[in-house]
Amino acid sequence: MDRAQILALMREAMQSLFEIEPEHIVGDAHLYNDLEIDSIDAIDLIDYIKRQTGHKLVADDFRSVRTIDDVINAVMNKQAQTQTDA
């Protein structure tokens, strides 16, 4: 998946899981301050991404995540790591 596809996945996830309008899901949107995503919501988001991408994401992958761009980078890093391991 490329950045645009992951962003589209994030918009779908945020709307489906948390009823956040897609236009609010932009790269620099802060998960906690702007989108009101708490730690429990983050676990739901991780699970959703895992189910959609097939990449096994864990909480440690998200420790430094603060924005939508951070989530995209975490998914891309996991994707690259998985390809390297294969």
User: Which band does the percent of strand residues land in?
Assistant: under 5%
CA radius of gyration? 12 Å
Q: Name the overall outline.
A: globular
By CATH, the architecture is named: Orthogonal Bundle
Helix segment count? 3
CATH H-level name... which superfamily? Answer: ACP-like
Provide the number of structural domains: 1
How would you summarize the topology of this molecule?
Blueprint: H1 3-18, H2 39-53, H3 68-85
How would you portray this structure in words?
This protein has 86 residues and is mainly alpha-helical. The protein has three helices and no strands. The protein has helices at 3-18, 39-53, 68-85. The chain is globular. The two termini are 16 Å apart.
In short:
The chain is mainly α. The chain has three helices and no strands.
Notable traits:
single chain; 86 residues; mainly alpha; Non-ribosomal Peptide Synthetase Peptidyl Carrier Protein, Chain A
